[in-house]
Design brief:
CATH architecture of the largest domain: 2-Layer Sandwich
Shape: globular
Distance between the termini: 34 Å
Largest sheet: 7 strands, antiparallel
CATH class of the largest domain: Alpha Beta
Number of strands: 16
CATH superfamily of the largest domain: Nonribosomal peptide synthetase, condensation domain
Number of helices: 12
Structural class: alpha+beta
Radius of gyration: 22 Å
Length: 458
């Protein structure tokens, strides 16, 4: 995240729950269970000592002209009150596990912190690094908001701990804060569609998961994958220069792989061959890894959204499941053949991946439950955000969403399509070997996608 210097102001959520004010010592008891993802993540982050993870998502957009601070504060508070996940506080249960306390909308307010003038680009970079590191999975805060105010423009920025959000949620939050600001600055109330509660969604997921046993037919896909892979976590197949179980500081980077015309051409080629862009992207990643020295069978974990198109379509929270994908990428296979294999694997992945990943671990690999990932995992995400809330106004608002992972033991790939093209965000452990691996893989992936898009070949 790059923010020009200005006068820095921050806001944090103050939520009064039945347990007490956020950060206070209250009586034990009360609260509700969080989602399965939250329970797993909270446990994997450890407790009582230094923070092991502070993964977060962030967003920013520009306001042109002098800031209406009253309207901005009203917009921030409107967003927090509207979304249940942003009104939650988290604590460890007496017997272990996670307890969530939810504040009523009327019991939420914002605390303001004036950070003073940030006078240079160097100071601005340091400020942003501190801001992105302010969230804390175990102790909070879980959502921080800020503005860099200048005479003729203001950058509104925010960061949310991964415990309470996913990438699409940050797109939603950005759009709603910007839309609410425009409404309040214009003297009227925001007109936003109804939104479902995150904890309702989490509770329904938990009830479905509790009905699943280790011998359930719905786990056949996972059982086969675990047997062939040697465990639930497929290893990243290229050299990263780290020992098993080790990790280190992370490097976050983003690059554009295809411009809008190239992304459209890729879609056309995939459709002509009977597939979709998501399968095409997976095929390109699998082939590129093999060309870089990886295996001729691509195995990875892939996140899929669970919010659907109904009442939770604009819900903020962690509404994602992890599912396994597996298909052959042998040398000599053509574009249509590899695309079809990726498409078939994606179909099997979706049909066999309805059980939450956390439940799969508990039932089939309990040694990994509520523990950090054991090694560098082959992970790939693809998301088309062209129809996401507010995307049509990205240029006008100069809006952007970021992933912030300060430490890792692997190399992760997030591909996303916007009106500006197909982009890749990578996070990798900061070693010379990982940097070389990332650079070479990105070049190969870009070339593979261009060959697919413009010539229909691998």
């Amino acid at each position: 995240m790059v923010i020009a210097p200005g006068h820095a102001v921050e806001w944090r959520v103050q939520a009064v729950t039945a347990y007490g004010a956020e950060g206070s010592e209250g009586e034990a008891g009360g609260g509700v269970p969080g989602s399965l993802n939250q329970e797993y993540h909270f446990g994997a982050c450890g407790g009582g000592g230094p923070r092991l993870r502070t993964d977060s998502f962030a967003g920013a957009f520009e306001i042109r002209g002098p800031l209406d601070r009253r309207a901005l504060e009203a917009a921030l508070l409107h967003c927090v009150r509207r979304h249940e996940a942003l009104r939650c506080t988290f604590r460890e249960a007496a017997g272990g596990g996670l307890v969530v306390d939810v504040a009523a909308p009327e019991d939420v307010k914002l605390a303001v912190y004036d950070r003073g003038v940030v006078g240079s680009e160097v100071e601005a970079r340091a400020y942003v690094e501190r801001f992105l590191g302010a969230t804390d999975t175990r102790r909070g805060p879980w959502f921080v908001m800020g503005a860099m105010v200048r005479e003729r423009s203001t950058t509104v920025h925010f960061a949310c701990d991964h415990l309470v959000t996913d990438g699409m949620s940050m797109v939603i939050v950005l759009d709603e804060i910007a839309a609410a600001y425009e409404a309040f600055a214009g003297g009227h109330q925001p007109a936003l569609p109804a939104v479902g509660g995150f904890l309702d969604h989490a509770g329904a997921e938990r009830r479905r998961a509790e009905a699943v046993g280790a011998d359930a037919r719905g786990l056949e896909h996972w059982r086969g994958f675990i047997e062939r892979n040697g465990g639930p976590f497929p290893k990243f197949p290229l050299d990263l220069g780290i020992e098993p179980g080790a990790g280190g500081p992370a490097v976050n980077a983003t690059v554009t792989l295809l411009d809008p015309g190239g992304a459209d051409a890729l879609e056309a080629r995939c459709r002509e061959a009977g597939g979709g862009v998501a399968a095409g992207v997976l095929a390109a990643v699998g082939v590129s890894l093999r060309r870089e020295g990886g295996p001729d069978v691509y195995r990875a974990l892939v996140p899929v959204g669970t919010r659907g198109r109904g009442r939770h379509a604009r819900t903020t929270g962690w509404l994602v499941n992890l599912v396994p994908v597996e298909f052959p990428v042998p040398a000599g296979a053509g574009f249509a053949q590899t695309l079809a294999a990726a498409g078939d694997a994606s179909t099997r992945m979706i049909r066999g991946g309805r059980t939450p990943f956390v439940t799969v671990l508990r039932l089939l690999a309990p040694e990994h439950y509520a523990r950090p990932w054991p090694h560098a995992v082959n992970f790939c995400s693809y998301m088309d955000v062209r129809d996401a809330p507010g995307t049509a106004r990205n240029d006008d608002r100069q809006s952007a969403v970021y992933t912030s992972i300060p430490a890792t033991n692997g190399l992760f790939l997030w591909l996303h399509r916007t009106p500006e093209g197909l982009h890749l965000n990578t996070v990798h452990v900061d070693t010379p070997e990982a940097s070389r691996t990332r650079s070479s893989l990105v070049r190969t992936l870009a070339g593979t996608l261009e060959s697919m898009a413009y010539w229909g070949v691998l």
